Amino acid sequence: MKKEFNRIVSEKMWGKRLDHYLLLSGIGVSRNRTHKLIEGGAVLVNMKKTKPSYRVKPGDNIKANFEIEDELKITAEPMKLAIVYEDNEVIVVNKPTGMIVHPARGHSHGTLVQGLLYHCRNLPPHPDSKIRPGVIHRLDKDTTGLLLFAKTDDALSNLGMAIEARKISREYLSVAWGNFPQDKEMIEAPIGRNSLDRKKMAVTPFSAKTAATGFEVKERYKIATYLKLKLLTGRTHQIRVHLQHYGHPVVGDPDYGGRSKSVITKQTDLPIFKKILTIIDRQALLAYKLGFNHPRTGKYLEFTAPLPKDISDLLVFLRSLC
To answer: What domains, with CATH codes, occur in the chain?
Structure first.
């Protein structure tokens, strides 16, 4: 459901930060969501985008249009879950490809959160969104691998702060097109909404957040490279966007150049390219390692996920070309 917010700043609000002003004026969402709305361009001051730190002035016309996702109802649903670890405070799940983490407009059933609600009977409400109970971090629909969820309010708060402070370790395995010039490197480039397609992200200086992804080459093949990657930040689609920006899109990625013939430098490699895309029909990306300090005991826990069959088959084929 769309919500419209429209206010004219009064004298008594002079000098308030824009994000604070919106909260005081009843925008009706959390502070974190308010901040994201401003940075995403959903809030306009005198018909112009600005920053959360903007100091409002009397007479400013402030408008906002956004979806109220919290009004979506979540129903628990029985489903088979690949549980890697569980105790009274946390649960780690290996998410399969094709599954969405939590409900959203157009995806009200069959999400991982709904399966967890059925399994756990209850999950702590997320401070930013009622449709994300227990959620600490997310994976794209067609990215497989490990996800951590909180089962109590204290665990949600503790792990939420840990991920903000970059104290939760997340490592990925991926296959990307081309031959990487470096064995190790850090990709640092700000990520924001794609100005031409709001469903996608892009490396851009506009309304963007800092983003850093480290990678290490594991194996090189004829037209692709097997990588280990580590997230230092957690932006939407970060690895996929960074590798496309670096000139080496993730193999099979339908949104960020991974299924485009432009990745081929030699016409003789076209049959190989076509064969690869029959082996994997999604981005070749796995969240394979997850490490964190337990929110109650403080003990460090680390888990790994096995390679899914499509990525394993892809590696077998690529190795056969060498």
So the answer is: 2-67 (3.10.290.10), 83-165 (3.30.2350.10), 171-288+310-320 (3.30.2350.10)
